[in-house]
Write a structure and sequence with these properties.
heterotetramer; A mainly alpha; B alpha+beta; C alpha+beta; D mainly beta; B: alpha+beta; 2 domains; two-stranded antiparallel sheet; C: alpha+beta; Methylamine Dehydrogenase, Chain H; five-stranded mixed sheet; four-stranded antiparallel sheet
C-alpha cells in the first residue's frame, strides 16, 4: 500500500484540455475541523512477480516430466495425466496467459520496437519449449500446452483426413504466424491473443463472440483432432521446424519394427509416415527435372509473394488503430449533428494536429509496405519449399512418426506389440 | 560417407544453426534491456495494464469491452484531490436541486457511490467496488465540474492481465499502456505530475 | 481384483450419464444465450421507463409518489442487472461442470473399452501418388490465397481515402523533427525507433567532435557552470528559468539539501547532471560528486595522500579555510586544488587521473584562487609573498604547458577569462597591477597599475571594459584597446571579498558590509545604492537579468540588473553561507555552511 | 459415408471460423455504438435561449499560453500568461509585449496603469513599460493566488490555497485578511473546492468574492464582514451549474455582473441584485472542457472572454443597448 501523504499537490487546470494550455495550480484542500482524516486511495497490488517465476518453474518441470514420460517411460497414461495437470494449472489456474504461443508477439515486438522490452518470464515461456523441442521433439504439445491438452480431451471421434486436406489446411499456420509477426512488429495488435479461442473458457468469462468461437472450434475438434494445433497454431510452425531437427525424437516402436501395421490408423493427427520402399513410378529423371524446375521457380514464388504483399499493405495497415483513426477522420465530415465517434472526440481533445497524425500514419504505412512485402516473400518461400519437399519421399522401411507434425502424444505406442524390455537387453 | 550418416550430419548442422538462432534472439533481447536484469530499475520487469486518467474520455468501453464481467476497471477515488463538495457532480445527476441520497438523484447506474456527511459543508464519497461496473459516468461528471478526483483505474486483483488487453485494443483515446508491476497505478493526484 | 460392475453395464451407464450431461449442458448453453441476449436487448440500467419517469420528475420536482416509483423501479432494474449477471456466471460454472462430467464419462468409456486397432484391408495408399495430390492442393491453396488477397485489396481499396501527398513528403524528416520538438507522436513505436537512431547519430556526432578537439565548445561551457562565478569567471550565468522564491526554513522550493562531510568555502561547479565540490580539514582532503537530480553524493574521492604532498598543514585564516579554491572542469575531467598546494585531476567517476604538489604556498591567509580552464589547459594563479606565478597544465596529462613569473604581492583573487572580441585574455589582479596574459602561451599582454593592498575580489569583464576593486584601494574601470587605460575610478564603496559584476552598460559592486551600488559602466555615474544591512562574502551573480546577492546569513537579495532599482525578492536559505551560488537550468545551487542546497521552482 | 459427412461438416465449420477471423480482422470496424453510460454532457450544453450578444473577430495575443485578462483605465487590453504580458488595443493590435520568467495566473490593472500580476504563489507589480516594480509573497506558505483586484490604494488578492482574500496596499503591506472563517463574527468562510476563486471590485468600490463552493457571489466590507450574497446552483440559465462555479466574474460600470462557468461553459449577465438578465455566450461557443474563461469589460459594452483553449480573446458585442 502506498502511503504517500502529499499535503499539497499540483492539479492541472482543465486536464481535459490540450497539454499546451495546461496551467499548473495547487489544489485548495478542504480544512476539516471534526478531525476527519483524508483517506488514501485504495490501490491493491497485482499478482506478485515471484509467481510469474513459479510459472516458469512449473513449465520447466512439466516439460521435463513430459519428455521423460514420452521418451523413457513411453507411457500414454502418464502423458494423459500430466496433460490434465497442465490443463488445470496453465489453463484454469493461470487462465492461459501468458502462453508460449502468445509470447511470439511479445518477443517480436521487443525485437522491433525500441520502447518495449519483453519481461524475462515471458521470454522464457517462449524459449523453453523451443529448446526442448529442438532436443526431444514436441513434448510441449503432448502434455504441457493447455490448448493442446484441452483439444485432446474433446477429440472423441477423430476422423482421418485425407493427405490433401492436411496439406491444404496445413498452410494456414504459416499465414497466421506471418500476420502475427507483422502486426506485432508494427506494434499494431496481438492477433494471436485477439483470436485466442480458449482463454474465455479457462476464465469462464469472455465476450460472446469469443465463446462462440471457442465453442465452434471445440465442436469441430470432436471430429478433427486438435484443429487449432494442426491448422492454426503459429507457435506450432516454430515447433515443427525445431522438431524436424530434434536430437532425440520419440519412436513408435521401442525396438525393431515388425511391420504389423497395427499403428497405421491410430494416429488421429495423420502424423505417421508409412514405409516407402518403391521407386518413383514417374521415373528418376522426371523427378530431377521437377526438382530443378521448382528450384528455379522458387525465386519467382518469393517475388510473387513480395508483389502480392506489397499490394496488400494498405489493407493490412488498416488493422492499425492509428491508421484506422486517420481514415475515420478523413471519412467523417466535421458537423455538429454528427453522432459522436469516441475515437475522433479523443483525438480532437488530445491536442495533436491532424497533419501530425497523417505524417505518423504515413510512416506506419511505410513500415507496413516493407513488412507486408517481407510477409508475402515469406509465404511465397514457404509454399515453394513445401512443394520442393513434396517432390520426393524418403526411402524408409518402418512406420515412423513424422518429426515435424508428431505431437509426441504417445497414443501410438500403446498399439505397438513390440515389448519394451527388448530395448533393455 | 553413406546416406544415413550424411543425413545425420545435415541434421546436426541445422540443429546447431537453430540453436544459434535461438541464442542470438535471446542474447539480443537480453542485451538490449540495458544494464540491470533484476532489481527495481530494470526495464525487463513484468508489466501490467493500466489506463492513464489524463487521456481517458469516459467513452464507456471499459465497462463493455473487458473480458471480465463486470469489468476489472473500477472507479477509484483519489481522496486527496476531492473537494468534498456538497453538490458532487460525480454523485448527483445534473440539475438535482435537493441534495439527498435518493435513488432518483444518483448518477451511478448501479448506485455504487456512498455519500456520508463529514462536517458542514463537506461530504465524503466512497466507491463500492463490488457494485461498480467501470462505466465512468461519475468520472465524467467529476472531471467536467469538479477536480477529477474520481478516476477510472484497472484494479489489479480483478484484472487477468491479458497479454493484450481487450479494452486497450478498443480504447479510443489510447489511454491504456503497460506499466511496470512495481508501480501499477496511474492515479492522478499523488504528486506524480509535480513540475 | 473383482470388478464392481461388469464392463458392459458400466459402459452403458456412463454412456447414459454422458448423454444426460451433454443434453443438460446444451440446455444451459441455450439458457445462457437467451439471458445474454435479453440483457443486451433490454439493458435494465438504461430502461426507457426509468428515463421517462425521471424526465417527468424534472418537470414536477415535488411529486413524492413519482419519486417513490423511480426508487422502486431503479432498485428493480439494478436487481435484474445483478441477478442476470449472477445467472450467467452460475450458468457458466454449471456448464463447465456438466461438460466435465461428460468428458470424464467419455474418457472412462474410452479407457475401459478395449482398443482394437483397425487394419485396412488394402495397404496404405501409394505415397508417390499422395505426394502428387498434396502438391496439387498446395498449388491450389497458393492460387486461392493470392486471389483472395487481391480480392480483399480490391474490396477494401474503396474504403481508403489515402494520405495527402505532402504527408508522404514529410516522411523523410519526420523522425528528426519529432524527436526535437518532443511531439506526442514520439509515443508511437515507430517514432521511438527513429528517436533511437537520432540518439545514436547524436552520439556519433559527439564522438567525432571529441576527436577533433579535446575541450568543450563555448556553447557547452555556457550550458553548464564549469568554474567559480560561471563560464570565464565573469559572474554571469546563462541558465534560464531561475527561481526567485524559496524558503529554506519551511523547505519551500528547496529541491534537496545534502550535508557536505568536510567544510570548504569553494562553490559548487556543474557539468550536466553532476555537481562537484571539495572539502578539507587537517590531514583530510576530499572531492565530492553529487547527482543534480536528487543531491545524493555519487562518489567521494580521498585526496589526503598524494605523492609529494608537503605533509604539513599551511597556516590559514579561519575565513579562508583549507579548501577555498573552487574546482573547474573541461567536461571530461575535474580539477581541484587545496590550501596546501595539492593539485589533482579526476575523471567523472572519481578516479584520479593525475596529481601534483605545487608545494606549500607562502600565503598568510591561505591559498584561495580558484581554478579555470582555457581550452584543454588548467590555469592556476599562484600568487605568493615571494615568487608568485601563473601556470598552465595540460588537462589530460598534467604536464606543464607554460609558466610565467609574476612580480606582484600575494593575492586571493581568482583568474578571469575574457573574450575581447579579437582575442582571449587571462586577467589577474594583485598589487600593484591588473595584468592580462595570452592564455595559450602565458605571454603578458598588458598591465595597468591600479590596484593595491591584499587583493581579494577578482576582476570582471564586460563589453570591452575590465573592472577591478579592492578595499582601501579603488574601483578601477579599464577600457581595453590598443593601450588599455583607466576610464574612471571611484573609491566611495569598496569591497574586500565580493567581486564586481558587469552587464550591458552597468557595473554592480557589492561591498562586504552589504551595500550594493550600480554604476554606469562607461562613465562611473552612480545609478542607485541599496543597503542590505547584512555583510556579504559571496560574489554577486547575474542570471536572467537579475542580480543574485547572497548575504552571510543566507538571505538571497534578488535585484533587477537594471539602472532602476527593483527588489524582486529576498528569499532566505535558513543557513549561513559565504559561497557564490551556482546556476543550473531552473535551479540554484548554494553551498551553505553545512549543506549544499538545490533550489528549484 | 457417415464419416465423410462428419468430415465435411467439421471442415466447413473450421473454415467458417477462419473466415470469420479474417473478416473480423480486416473489415471489422470498431464499435460506433452509442455509449450506454453517457453522462449527457452534449444535451446539457445545449440551450434554446438566444444570446443578447454577438461574437466578433477574436483578438490573438502573441503569448502562446494565456491565463488572464484585464482592461486598463486607458482602454487597453492586458493579457497575461506563461512568461509574459501582451498589451493590445481593441482592434487586436499588439502595442507592447514583455516577458518574465514564471507563470502569471491572474492580473489586474491599477488606476495608475500599474499591473498587478498574480504568479501562483506571489504577487508582482509591473510598470506597463515592462519594468518590475516589486514582488511580495503572502505569509501563508500554501498560497494559490487565483485572482487579483485593485483600486487606487487597495490590492485584493484571492488565495485559493488558504481560502482567504488579502488586502494589501500598493507597497505590498498586508492591510487586512478578509473572509477567514470566524464563527464569532458570523463569517462562514469560503468553500473553494477547486482552484477557481475570483475577486472583483464594483464601481462603488465594494469587494465581491466568488464563493464557488456555495455557488454564490458575496460582498464583503473592509473588516471582513459578509454584507450580502446572491446566486444558486442550477443547470438552467438562471443559476450556476454545479460546484465550483462561477469560475470567473467581472463587474460592469453599471454594477451588473458578468459570470463565466466551467463544466457547462457559458457566460451570462446578471443585474446588480443578482437577477439573470441575458446570455452572452452559449456553451457551444466554446470547446468542450474549456476551463478558465477569464472575463473583462471592454469599451461600449463589449465583453472580453479569454479562451485559454483556443488561446484567443473572444469579443462579444451587445446586440442592443440595455
Amino acid at each position: 500500500m502506498r502511503r504517500k501523504q502529499v499535503i499539497l499537490f499540483f492539479l492541472i487546470i482543465g486536464w481535459l484540455s490540450p497539454p499546451a494550455v495546461m496551467a499548473i495550480q495547487r489544489f485548495p484542500k478542504p480544512e476539516f475541523e471534526s478531525g476527519y482524516v483524508v483517506p488514501d486511495a485504495q490501490l491493491p497490488l497485482p499478482r506478485a512477480e515471484l509467481l510469474a517465476w513459479l510459472d516458469v518453474t512449473v513449465l520447466l518441470l512439466t516439460l521435463s516430466l513430459a519428455t521423460y514420460l514420452v521418451l523413457k517411460r513411453r507411457s500414454r497414461m502418464g502423458v494423459f495425466l500430466l496433460s490434465l495437470f497442465s490443463l488445470a494449472y496453465f489453463g484454469f489456474y493461470r487462465q492461459g496467459c501468458v502462453c508460449s504461443i502468445g509470447a511470439i508477439q511479445n518477443v517480436t515486438m521487443a525485437l522491433f520496437s525500441g520502447s518495449y522490452t519483453v519481461p524475462l518470464t515471458v521470454l522464457f515461456f517462449f524459449l523453453i519449449p523451443l529448446v526442448f523441442t529442438l532436443l526431444f521433439g514436441r513434448t510441449f504439445c503432448a502434455a504441457v500446452c493447455p490448448f493442446g491438452t484441452f483439444q485432446d480431451l474433446v477429440s472423441f471421434r477423430p476422423v482421418r483426413m485425407g493427405a490433401w486436406l492436411n496439406a491444404f489446411l496445413g498452410m494456414i499456420p504459416y499465414l497466421y504466424l506471418g500476420l502475427a509477426v507483422l502486426f506485432a512488429a508494427t506494434t499494431t495488435e496481438f492477433i494471436i491473443c485477439r483470436y485466442d479461442p480458449f482463454v474465455g473458457i479457462f476464465r469462464l468469462n469472455a465476450s460472446f463472440g469469443m465463446f462462440l468461437f471457442a465453442g465452434l472450434l471445440l465442436v469441430s475438434g470432436v471430429f478433427i483432432a486438435r484443429p487449432y494445433c494442426r491448422f492454426l497454431c503459429p507457435y506450432g510452425v516454430l515447433l515443427n521446424w525445431m522438431s524436424q531437427f530434434s536430437w532425440k525424437h520419440m519412436t513408435i516402436t521401442p525396438a525393431e519394427c515388425i511391420q504389423c501395421r497395427l499403428c497405421e490408423n491410430v494416429c488421429p493427427y495423420d502424423a505417421i509416415d508409412f514405409p516407402q520402399t518403391k521407386k518413383n513410378p514417374a521415373g528418376q529423371r522426371k523427378q530431377v527435372n521437377q526438382l530443378i524446375l521448382l528450384s528455379l521457380l522458387l525465386p519467382l514464388l518469393v517475388l510473387g509473394g513480395v508483389w502480392t504483399g506489397g499490394k496488400m499493405h494498405l489493407t493490412l495497415a488498416g488493422v492499425n488503430s492509428r491508421v484506422r483513426l486517420a481514415r475515420m477522420i478523413q471519412a467523417t465530415p466535421v458537423s455538429k449533428d454528427q453522432p459522436e465517434i469516441p475515437e475522433i472526440t479523443a483525438f480532437r481533445s488530445s491536442g495533436v494536429q491532424q497533419q501530425q497524425l497523417m505524417t505518423e500514419v504515413a510512416t506506419i504505412e511505410d513500415d507496413f509496405l516493407t513488412g507486408s512485402r517481407i510477409f508475402g516473400g515469406f509465404v511465397g518461400l514457404v509454399f515453394g519449399i513445401t512443394l520442393i519437399r513434396l517432390i520426393r519421399t524418403p526411402y524408409r522401411t518402418d512406420y515412423l512418426p513424422n518429426r515435424g507434425t508428431c505431437f509426441s502424444c504417445a497414443k501410438c505406442m500403446d498399439y505397438c506389440p513390440v515389448l519394451k524390455d527388448k530395448t533393455n537387453n | 560417407m553413406d546416406k544415413q550418416s550424411r543425413r545425420q550430419f545435415i541434421r546436426l548442422a541445422v540443429r546447431g544453426t537453430l540453436f544459434g538462432g535461438i541464442a542470438l534472439v535471446t542474447g539480443n533481447l537480453i542485451l538490449r534491456q540495458g544494464e540491470p536484469l533484476f532489481g527495481k530499475n530494470r526495464k525487463s520487469g513484468p508489466t501490467v495494464w493500466q489506463l492513464n486518467p489524463a487521456k481517458c474520455i469516459q467513452c464507456g468501453r471499459c465497462a463493455t469491452n473487458c473480458v471480465k464481467t463486470p469489468s476489472a476497471v473500477k472507479c477509484t477515488h483519489a481522496y486527496s484531490m476531492c473537494g468534498y463538495c456538497n453538490l458532487c457532480s460525480g454523485y448527483f445527476k445534473p440539475g438535482t436541486k435537493t441534495l439527498d441520497t435518493g435513488a432518483e438523484k444518483q448518477l451511478c447506474p448501479v448506485s455504487a457511490i456512498k455519500r456520508t456527511f463529514v462536517e458542514d459543508p463537506f461530504y465524503e464519497y466512497t466507491i463500492d467496488e463490488t457494485l461498480c461496473i467501470g462505466c465512468g459516468k461519475c468520472v465524467k461528471g467529476c472531471g467536467a465540474f469538479g477536480n477529477g478526483s474520481l478516476q477510472l483505474q484497472v484494479r489489479h486483483p480483478l484484472c487477468d492481465n491479458c497479454n493484450e488487453c481487450s479494452i486497450a485494443r478498443n480504447c479510443p483515446a489510447g489511454a491504456y499502456r503497460r506499466v511496470p508491476l512495481s508501480d501499477p497505478y496511474l492515479l492522478k493526484g499523488f504528486g506524480k505530475e509535480k513540475v | 481384483m473383482k470388478k464392481l460392475l461388469p464392463d458392459e453395464i458400466l459402459v452403458k451407464f456412463l454412456r447414459l450419464l454422458a448423454m444426460i450431461s451433454g443434453i443438460f449442458s446444451l440446455l444451459i448453453c441455450i439458457l445462457i444465450f437467451i439471458n445474454f441476449f435479453q440483457l443486451k436487448r433490454t439493458d435494465p440500467l438504461n430502461s426507457p421507463a426509468l428515463t421517462l419517469l425521471q424526465e417527468r420528475l424534472i418537470q414536477n420536482p415535488g411529486d413524492i409518489a413519482l419519486k417513490q416509483d423511480i426508487r422502486q423501479l431503479d432498485l428493480m432494474a439494478r436487481k435484474v442487472f445483478f441477478t442476470s449477471q449472477w445467472q450467467i456466471r452460475a450458468g457458466g460454472y454449471l456448464l463447465v461442470a456438466c461438460i466435465l462430467v461428460m468428458i470424464i464419462c467419455l474418457k472412462t468409456i474410452e479407457l475401459i473399452t478395449p482398443k482394437i486397432p483397425s487394419i485396412a484391408a488394402t495397404g496404405p495408399e501409394e505415397p508417390w501418388n499422395l505426394r502428387k495430390i498434396q502438391r496439387r492442393w498446395i498449388i491450389i491453396a497458393g492460387i486461392l490465397l493470392v486471389t483472395f488477397s487481391l480480392t480483399l485489396v480490391w474490396f477494401t481499396h474503396r474504403m481508403l481515402t489515402g494520405i495527402p501527398a505532402e504527408a508522404g513528403h514529410l516522411k523523410a524528416n519526420v523522425s528528426g523533427r519529432d524527436s526535437i520538438t518532443g511531439n506526442p507522436v514520439l509515443q508511437s513505436p515507430v517514432a521511438s525507433l527513429t528517436s533511437d537512431t537520432v540518439r545514436l547519430l547524436g552520439n556519433a556526432v559527439k564522438s567525432n567532435q571529441a576527436v577533433a578537439e579535446d575541450f568543450p565548445t563555448q556553447q557547452e561551457i555556457r550550458s553548464n557552470f564549469p568554474s567559480f562565478r560561471g563560464p570565464g569567471g565573469n559572474g554571469i550565468a546563462f541558465q534560464k528559468n531561475i527561481p526567485v522564491l524559496w524558503d529554506g526554513a519551511s523547505g519551500k522550493n528547496i529541491g534537496w539539501k545534502t550535508e557536505i562531510p568536510l567544510p570548504g568555502y569553494n562553490s559548487p561547479i556543474i557539468w550536466k547532471d553532476k555537481i562537484f565540490l571539495s572539502g578539507a580539514k587537517e590531514n583530510k582532503r576530499e572531492v565530492y560528486c553529487l547527482g543534480a537530480s536528487d543531491g545524493k553524493i555519487l562518489w567521494t574521492t580521498d585526496l589526503s595522500k598524494i605523492p609529494g604532498s608537503p605533509g604539513q598543514n599551511p597556516k590559514v585564516n579561519a575565513e579562508t579555510g583549507l579548501a577555498a579554491p573552487t574546482l573547474t572542469t573541461d567536461g571530461q575531467r575535474i580539477y581541484t586544488i587545496f590550501a596546501n598546494g595539492d593539485l589533482a585531476a579526476l575523471d567523472f567517476e572519481g578516479k584520479i587521473i593525475w596529481t601534483k604538489s605545487l608545494g606549500l604556498p607562502k600565503n598568510h591567509y591561505g591559498h584561495s584562487s580558484s581554478l579555470i580552464m582555457y581550452h584543454d589547459m588548467l590555469i592556476i594563479q599562484y600568487d605568493q609573498t615571494v615568487s608568485g606565478k601563473v601556470i598552465a597544465f595540460a588537462g589530460k596529462t598534467g604536464e606543464k604547458v607554460w609558466e610565467t613569473a609574476r612580480n606582484v604581492k600575494v593575492s586571493w583573487a581568482s583568474p578571469v577569462l575574457a573574450n575581447t572580441g579579437s582575442r582571449m585574455e587571462l586577467l589577474l589582479a594583485a598589487e600593484p597591477d591588473v595584468t592580462s596574459y595570452d592564455p595559450a602561451t602565458g605571454k603578458e599582454l598588458w598591465k595597468l597599475d591600479c590596484i593595491s593592498g591584499e587583493v581579494g575580489p577578482s576582476v570582471t569583464y564586460a563589453n570591452g571594459m575590465v573592472f577591478s576593486i579592492n578595499e582601501y584601494s579603488k574601483l578601477a574601470a579599464i577600457r581595453l584597446g590598443e593601450t588599455p587605460s583607466l576610464a574612471w575610478e571611484d573609491n566611495e564603496y569598496l569591497s574586500d571579498v565580493p567581486s564586481p559584476v558587469a552587464i550591458n552598460d552597468i557595473v554592480i559592486v557589492v561591498t562586504s558590509y552589504g551595500v550594493v551600488v550600480c554604476y554606469d559602466a562607461a562613465t562611473g555615474k552612480k545609478y542607485w545604492v541599496k543597503e542590505l544591512e547584512k555583510s556579504v562574502y559571496s560574489s554577486p551573480m547575474i542570471a536572467e537579468g537579475k542580480i543574485y546577492i547572497l548575504d552571510k546569513q543566507g538571505m538571497m537579495h534578488i535585484l533587477r540588473a537594471d539602472k532602476i532599482l527593483a527588489v524582486i525578492g529576498e528569499p532566505s536559505l535558513g543557513e549561513g553561507s559565504v559561497c557564490t551560488p551556482a546556476f543550473g537550468e531552473g535551479r540554484i545551487y548554494i553551498r551553505g555552511n553545512k549543506h549544499l542546497f538545490c533550489i528549484t521552482k | 459415408m457417415k464419416k465423410k459427412i462428419i468430415l465435411v461438416f467439421a471442415i466447413i465449420l473450421f473454415l467458417a471460423i477462419v473466415a470469420w477471423m479474417f473478416r473480423d480482422l480486416f473489415t471489422g470496424s470498431p464499435e460506433l455504438q452509442k455509449n450506454p453510460y453517457d453522462y449527457g454532457m452534449k444535451e446539457l450544453r445545449q440551450t434554446d435561449t438566444v444570446p443578447a450578444y454577438k461574437e466578433v473577430t477574436p483578438l490573438k495575443p502573441a503569448l502562446t499560453t494565456i491565463t488572464s485578462i484585464a482592461t486598463g483605465y486607458d482602454g487597453k487590453i492586458y493579457v497575461a500568461g506563461k512568461g509574459g504580458v501582451d498589451i493590445l488595443d481593441i482592434s487586436g493590435r499588439i502595442l507592447k509585449s514583455f516577458t518574465f520568467p514564471g507563470y502569471a495566473t491572474c492580473l489586474t490593472v491599477m488606476p495608475d496603469n500599474t499591473l498587478v500580476i498574480g504568479m501562483g504563489d506571489h504577487v508582482e507589480l509591473w510598470d506597463p513599460s515592462g519594468v518590475q516594480i516589486s514582488a511580495w509573497q503572502p505569509e501563508d506558505t500554501t498560497s494559490v493566488i487565483t485572482s487579483v483586484a485593485a483600486s487606487q490604494h487597495k490590492i485584493f488578492v484571492a488565495d485559493a490555497g488558504n481560502k482567504i482574500v488579502y488586502q494589501y496596499n500598493e507597497l505590498g503591506k498586508l492591510q487586512a485578511r478578509i473572509g477567514e472563517k470566524d464563527p464569532s463574527r458570523k463569517i462562514p468562510g469560503f468553500v473553494i473546492p477547486s482552484p477557481y476563486f475570483d475577486v472583483g471590485i464594483s464601481p462603488a468600490g465594494e469587494l465581491w468574492v466568488a464563493n464557488t463552493g456555495r455557488y454564490k457571489l458575496e460582498k464583503y466590507d473592509n473588516d471582513g464582514s459578509l454584507l450580502t450574497s446572491w446566486g444558486e446552483a442550477s443547470v438552467t440559465l438562471e443559476g450556476f451549474a454545479g460546484c465550483c462555479n462561477p469560475s470567473h466574474f467581472t463587474i460592469l460600470s453599471d454594477g451588473s455582473f458578468v459570470t463565466s462557468e466551467k463544466g457547462i461553459e457559458r457566460v451570462k449577465v446578471y443585474s446588480p441584485d443578482g437577477n439573470f438578465i441575458a446570455l452572452v455566450a452559449r456553451p457551444e461557443s466554446f470547446d468542450e472542457g474549456t476551463r478558465g474563461l477569464d472575463l473583462a469589460a471592454g469599451s461600449n459594452g463589449r465583453i472580453l472572454i479569454l479562451d485559454p483553449l483556443r488561446n484567443q480573446v473572444r469579443v462579444f458585442l451587445p446586440l442592443k443597448k440595455h
